[in-house]
Amino acid sequence: MAILKLQDYNIYVNEGLQILQPFTQNYSSIFVLVDDNTQKYCLPLLEQKINSFKLIEIPSGEIHKNIETCQSIWNQLMKNNADRNALLINLGGGVIGDMGGFCASTYKRGIDFIQIPTTLLSQVDASIGGKLGIDFAQVKNSIGLFQNPKAVIIESDFLKTLPFGELRSGYAEIIKHSLISDAQQWQQLSKIIDIQNFNNWQILIEPSLQIKQNIVQQDPFEKGIRKALNFGHTIGHAVESLALETTQALLHGEAIAIGMVCESYLSHKADLLSKNQLEEITQYISTVYAHYSINEADSTKLLQLMRNDKKNQNHQINFTFLTNIGQCQINQTASDKLILESLAYYNSIT
Ligand SMILES: NC(=O)c1ccc[n+]([C@@H]2O[C@H](COP(=O)([O-])OP(=O)(O)OC[C@H]3O[C@@H](n4cnc5c(N)ncnc54)[C@H](O)[C@@H]3O)[C@@H](O)[C@H]2O)c1
Ligand SMILES: [Zn+2]
Questions:
Q1: Where are the alpha helices (DSSP H) in the chain?
Q2: Residue 2 confidence (pLDDT)
Q3: How many domains does the chain have?
């Protein structure tokens, strides 16, 4: 149980959903945004905590994180006469949080919203940091804005119904947070081998989001240190995008796990990370995540995807490298040859 205070809002971790009550006072109307899964699994926990609200339902999945779904959300707000003093509660994973926050921030030039993240990924990552948006023209998160919610309410009980794959996907961001800035948490994590039967998530959530919060507070608009959070994501995003085109789709965190191995390799090759630490990271990640074969024939395509990444500057592929377990350096680069070598290194793990 904890309350993390940010400049203009608080994050409530396992304080109980009744914490929502005072926030729902004084609004002209309250809307709760759900998808088919969070309506079924999460809404029952919330229903008793707020008096009267209107439900906005959307289909689940990243493919619906688009302008058509936004139109349906705005339409429902409009139809129900939501005025500037309405509140939107986003109950769901990162898709609901990013898109609901975006719709709230743009409806009538902005109404208040509260994030209640229900996946591990959204609890430790997507729900904090103020990034909101949708996918457009096949480019992920290409339309959006930075805007903070009134509050973030995290309840680890929601995770009980989350499928194992989604849990493990979110766990990659917990691993990432420890690798970039908390060697002690890494020590704790690397002892957790059986993720499937692990159920003490509450002990990992708070320190993990504290790491993200510290970084975001120093650099809310990603001009500098916030890029540390991109560790594993330069190569990971490319692998994730490519996998979308095949039948072997990867969840975000599964792709980031691959990215973290490759980028740890690059960190080692840049003389920043020791061989022992590279091996320790590789060993742990390959214990937790099933191996995925990267087809050598796709290498050029992967490099192309990395080159198109919006995080790049001056046409250079931008990386965050580890200098140690628990420490990192932003704005790093690597040659194409080394990037390809890092993919081959990942492939060679058995
Ligand atoms: N804003 C940010 O800073 C940020 C950071 C990371 C990721 N993201 C975004 O987050 C999204 C991914 O988030 P996600 O992984 O939470 O995906 P998601 O929202 O699609 O949720 C994953 C699946 O779990 C279901 N679900 C949610 N809660 C559940 C529960 N408690 N029990 C059972 N099923 C449940 C959902 O319906 C969905 O099918 C991406 O769109 C990504 O771009 C944003
Ligand atoms: Zn991520």
A1: 36-41, 43-47, 67-79, 94-106, 120-121, 164-181, 183-189, 202-218, 233-244, 252-269, 275-288, 299-307, 336-348
A2: 85
A3: 2
CA of 62 to the centre of ligand 1 (A): 8
Low-confidence ranges of the chain (pLDDT < 50): none
Q: How confident is the model over 103-126, as pLDDT tens digits? A: 999 999 999 999 999 999 999 999
Ligand nearest to the CA of 230: 2
206 and 342 share one domain: yes
User: What is the reported pLDDT for 244?
Assistant: 82
Instruction: Kindly report the average pLDDT of the chain as a whole number.
Output: 94
pTM over 0.70: yes
Domain extent for 57: 2-161
What's the CA-to-centroid distance between 180 and ligand 2, angstroms? 13
User: What is the C-alpha separation between 33 and 80, in angstroms, rounded?
Assistant: 14
Which among 191, 181, 117 has a CA at the least distance from the CA of 154? 117
Q: Are residues 130 and 173 in the same domain?
A: no
Residue 166 near ligand 1, beta carbon < 6 Å: yes
Q: Which ligand is nearest to the CA of 42?
A: 1
Query: Angle at CA 300, nearest 5°, toward 298 and 306?
Result: 105
Identify the CATH number of the domain in which residue 9 sits.
3.40.50.1970
Q: Where are the beta strands (DSSP E) in 6-108?
A: 10-13, 29-35, 54-58, 86-92
CA 188/CA 139 separation, integer angstroms: 36
For the annotated catalytic residues, the residue numbers are 109, 131, 173, 212, 222, 226, 230, 233, 237, 252
Residue 178 in contact with ligand 1 by CB distance below 6 A: no
Q: Please check whether residues 238 and 250 belong to one and the same domain.
A: yes
What distance in angstroms lies between residue 94's CA and the mean position of ligand 1's atoms?
A: 4
- Whole-angstrom Cα distance, residue 170 to residue 251? 9
Q: Which of 121, 124, 256 to mutate to test the pocket of ligand 1 (most atoms within 8 A of CB)?
A: 121
Q: Are residues 35 and 16 in the same domain?
A: yes
